[in-house]
Structures are given as structure tokens and as C-alpha cells.
Write a structure and sequence with these properties.
- It is a single chain.
- The protein is an alpha/beta fold and 254 residues long.
- The protein is built from eight helices and six strands.
- Strands 3-2-1-4-6-5 form a six-stranded mixed sheet.
- Helix 4 packs across helix 8 and helix 6 runs antiparallel to helix 7.
- It is globular, with a radius of gyration of 18 Å.
- It starts with a helix and ends in a 68-residue tail after the last helix.
């Protein structure tokens, strides 16, 4: 099935050129009915995408990965989003046995002790639940932005995710922070107030802090580690097989 889905990419690349986000979402939903999903962390980027999907009632399933260690503010945004759009965003949780074994063996804050421990924690709380959420799906929509880290500049608007066997659509890849914030304000979209307090990339509470003046976007995530290791595994896979597309889509459209 993976190869069948993957074969759609060259044609899709041609079809989405010149389309805005809403048009692309509609195209994908028609092409892969019931197999298009969006993973939200309730970040400011993800809230933009959620608004595109929910305000236009695009048949895309929205889910989140509840790691069990999120900020209280994140849960508030989750609730506000459900209320504003009259929806119920689905949650995936860590496998109980995996998490219990990890905590019993290593302790609740073992991720501070080594990169391996931290990556194991991320795998249990994020990567494994994501794989369950993406099983049987064709398209995974994400809030990745190239501005977030040097590694993310290598991603494409539309690409193949080998690790999960899905087409990955990153609609805000070429948006800058100013564009994202303008959109949030224009459409009165609920967003995490931590973004106004220096938090750029918001993950689990023990692993996230505000970014200081002069620091890069990812400095607030796993700040005790070397910057070259700052990925949780959700967006790390083999190099995209299709790299022809470099054009950004129309931004700020609705």
C-alpha cells in the first residue's frame, strides 16, 4: 500500500502548484477520503492549520499526542479549540506498559541524565503513539516551519515520510513568524499564551523553556543538550524522495 500512495506524489506536486492551503487541503481530502490526518500540538502554527480545516469543515481528522507532561496552558488551548469550532480533537496516549516500565526502571526525570534516556522518553510519549495514529493513513499534515531549525529547512512542502509510510504535507513550511501571528490575530484563533512569554516551540513542560534574546528558535527545547540533537523523532526519517517542489504556496489566504 505504501508504494501505491507514494506513487501519487509527482502528480500531486504538479497539482498543488499555485494552490492555496484551503485548496490543497480540499484536493487531498478528495484524493484520499478518510485517510488524511492532522497532528496538532496546539502550537501557534498548528492553530493556523486547525482553523483552515475546522472553519471550512474539511474532512480531515485532527489528533494530538498527549504525553502526560504538557503545560496547563496547552490543555487550555485544546479546550478552547474544541469549544470555538464545536469539535472534539482525538488524543493518543503513551502505551501504559512501555511508560510504566521506563519510569520504574529510570525514574520520572531520567531524560535529564542522558540523550539516550531523553530519546527513549520521546519515543514512548510521542513516536510510538504517532505511529498508531498514522497507521492506515495516506496523508499526514504537520505544522513544520523551516524557520524553526536548520534541519527543518531540508523538508519540502509535500514529501514522502519513509518511516511512517505516508505523504507528508507541511503547509506552513515557508511561513515566517510574523505571518503566523498576523493570521492568528486576523481570525481570532485561540493560541497558547506561552508564545507571548518567549516560548517559541512548546512541548512537554519539563523539557521546554522560554527563548532568551539572541538564541535560536529551538534553544528552548531540551536546553541541556547539544543543539545538533534537538529532535524528538517525530520528524526524523530518511531523506525525502521527491525534492522537485521548492515553491511556497500562497500564504495568508482563507
Amino acid at each position: 500500500m505504501d508504494s501505491t500512495i507514494r506513487n501519487h506524489i509527482p502528480r500531486l506536486i504538479d497539482q498543488i502548484k499555485g494552490l492555496n492551503i484551503d485548496e490543497t487541503l480540499a484536493l487531498l481530502a478528495v484524493r484520499f477520503p478518510g485517510q488524511v490526518v492532522f497532528s496538532t500540538s496546539f502550537s501557534i502554527e498548528d492553530q493556523v492549520i486547525a482553523h483552515h480545516i475546522l472553519s471550512h469543515e474539511v474532512p480531515v481528522t485532527i489528533f494530538t499526542l498527549d504525553t502526560g507532561r504538557l503545560f496547563a496552558e496547552t490543555y487550555s488551548v485544546w479546550s478552547a479549540t474544541n469549544e470555538k469550532y464545536n469539535t472534539r480533537i482525538r488524543a493518543y496516549y503513551p502505551d501504559r506498559n512501555l511508560l510504566e516500565n521506563y519510569l520504574n526502571e529510570k525514574g520520572p526525570n531520567a531524560f535529564y541524565e542522558s540523550v539516550d534516556n531523553r530519546k527513549s522518553c520521546c519515543h514512548i510519549r510521542k513516536v510510538e503513539p504517532l505511529k498508531r495514529a498514522l497507521k492506515g493513513q495516506a496523508v499526514w499534515i504537520t505544522g513544520l516551519r523551516a524557520e524553526h531549525s536548520p534541519e527543518r529547512k531540508d523538508h519540502q512542502l509535500l514529501e514522502w515520510d519513509e518511516g511512517n509510510g505516508v505523504i507528508k504535507y507541511n503547509p506552513l513550511l515557508h511561513w515566517d513568524t510574523s505571518t503566523v501571528r498576523t493570521y492568528i490575530e486576523e481570525f481570532n484563533v485561540p493560541y497558547n499564551p506561552l508564545h507571548d512569554k518567549g516560548f517559541v516551540s512548546i512541548g512537554c513542560a519539563p523539557c521546554t523553556r522560554a527563548v532568551r534574546a539572541g538564541e535560536d528558535f529551538r534553544a528552548g527545547r531540551w536546553w541541556w543538550e547539544d543543539s545538533s540533537k534537538k529532535e524528538c523523532g517525530l520528524h526524523v526519517s530518511e531523506a525525502p524522495a521527491f525534492r522537485e517542489i521548492s515553491t511556497g504556496q500562497k500564504t495568508g489566504q482563507h
